[in-house]
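Query form — protein PaaI family thioesterase

QUESTION: What is the three-dimensional structure of this chain?
INPUT:
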Amino acid sequence: MTPPDLGGEQAHHRALEALYAAAPINTLFESRLEIAEPGVARIHFEIEPRHYHAGGAAHGTSYFKMLDDAAFYAANSLVTDRFLLTTAFNLLFTRPLRAGPVTAEGRWISGQRRVVVADARLIDASGEEAARGTGTFMRSRIALSSLPGYADEQ
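ANSWER: The structure tokens for PaaI family thioesterase are given below.
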């Protein structure tokens, strides 16, 4: 697969950002995707008390959602024709997250054909890492151009 030209690359990244914003799950998790360059994605997220488990810190679903999304979009930023699917994700919690801004930083590690590997880390408001994860993603049969959000930006 040949990477798109700069204009096409930027259009692909903006369309992925629109696809992210259009996903119904994001009505539950207020967040914003930013793809600054190929293979790198950031999810900006605000942890609120509504995300807490009974112990008073963010539930693991918040960690997983942000890490998976950041790694996924870092990987899909390099795949211009197909939607990727998460096939595995390993997660390491390093500290509790409480209310405040969080950034998930995703980076491509390897692959671009059938299987892609990417990792991500969560950075809290104080600049400390709260979690990290590595995901494996595979190309689906779903054309990106067929998806609401993505198609609207092309």
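ADDITIONAL NOTE: Confidence is low (pLDDT under 50) at residues 1-6.
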